[in-house]
Design a protein that fits this description.
Layout lengths: L7 H25 L8 H19 L1 H19 L11 H49 L4 H16 L3 E6 L21 E2 L4 E2 L5 E7 L2 E9 L8 H20 L2 H5 L12
Antiparallel strand pairs: 1-5, 2-3, 4-5
Length: 267
Amino acid sequence: MRHRVRHPEAAGTTAIGLAVGGLAPIAVGALLVSFRDDIDNTNLALILVLVVVVAAIVGGRAAGALAAVTSTLAFDFFLTKPFLSARIDSADDLETALILLAVGLLVGEVAARGRRARRAHEAAAENVFRVHRVADDIAHGAPLAVILERVRRELLDLLGLWDCWFELQPFSWVLPRMDRGGTVEAVEHLWLDAGFVLPRDGVELPVVDRGREVGRLVLIGDPDVAVSLEARVLAVALADQLGVAIAMARPSEVSGLAVGPDTEQAP
């Protein structure tokens, strides 16, 4: 049975951020119309900067940039004379609008960088738990099939794979190999923002038992998912843990491992 693990959270969050960046400044600008005679235009612009920050935190750099531009247009349209017009008669208001745009872009970029740093920290913590979960299964003497399924599921999620399975030697066909440094040999790499895409035709990740290759994990990549070097190096570490489990298992357990993409794995 094939599995496809997708990560819709990031795309959904970006879409929400873009919606906030495109619509929230207009809504806030319209609400501020009631206060434009009582509050200085500079302070009104600062309120719109807050909208930029929220959009960048929620949706990243693109949402922050969109919010900065939309906030500037909303400030011009709703809060500067002549009202409800794209013209700005006052030099001070024009200067404020330009500063709003510049500050909005800058603050949005800073907020987006902070968001990326927070996500990187969370991902690093989760990667530690991936290794810990497999090690915990090994330490508690879990059956080899259970450990294999744990490694397989961790790889599916870590690398955003279409599918992943284990094969014993001899192998039925030749695949590009991921070496211990996470590099995939003899493959034309398609790069996205965060790394390169694993080939859909498959990559082999060797499983080693005391220096001897006993099998391989076949990784079927998703063409829409970029895989960072850090994730690939962690995948090698997970394969090494599987090799440790194989070294500790009885020969009957090893020979009885389910293999192939369409074979049911242990729960």
